[in-house]
User: Fold XRE family transcriptional regulator from Streptomyces palmae.
Amino acid sequence: MVNRKELDPDESPGARFGQRLRALRDERGWTQDELGDRMGFSGTHISAVETGRRPPTPHFSASADRVFGTGDQLSRQGRAARNSAILEGFPEFVTHEVRAAEIRLFELGIIPGLLQTPDYAAAITAGAVRRGAITEQQAEERLSLLARRQASLERTPRPMIFAVLDESCIRRQVGGPAVMAAQLEWLVAFAELPSTVLQVAPYELGERRAFDLPVHLLTLPDRAQLAYAESAQQGRLERDMRLVQPLLTAYHQLQAEALSQAASVDMIKQLRKGTQ
Assistant:
């Protein structure tokens, strides 16, 4: 079929719902318009849900259960798609991250997840729970995924990790003085590993700082390169080298402008003294 988008159920809960919806529709030989007529939605709406561009609302999921005779299976799956604390696109990124040969990170405001101590990560998620941004269950989901990502770094051979942190990452206190002190101490230890490079992009860079959003760049074992970037509401994995290459170029420029690793570690150590 022309322009039929392939679906990856591991990409997100929304993608899993879309794949299930499409499979049920294909089993019956219905077009998207025909399913839409049965459910009370347009064929365009069906297409958007199947491809993960629109989340399944409770009404949509219940209508699908009614049409397909699936009890409440789709309603429960739709609820999971709506309630996941993981941004769409990020699960797919993780499947590549855990096998990448090189990982390049840039972060603003908080320490990147791969470099977070357990207490720092717990403080970040606890703050989101207190604000009502996520539930306790979603916080556990985030922490569990982070633990799996960090554990994957112990693989052999270890990936090379290049991390550039905006100065705001190390100056913003998270979890109180003790948690922050331990986090800064871990950053110093991280910088001493043979497979890492850690740099701080100081405030003085001003408009010369290359990025205004967090950026993740992966080099896979076959040397293919991917980019992942996210806002507060959405993540996007990019494979097209016409779009990835400018990000790599900007990252290299950022590394050249940032403090050296030695100067970065000195700054972190000075801040570490202030948290005692």
Q: What stands out?
A: The radius of gyration is 22 Å.
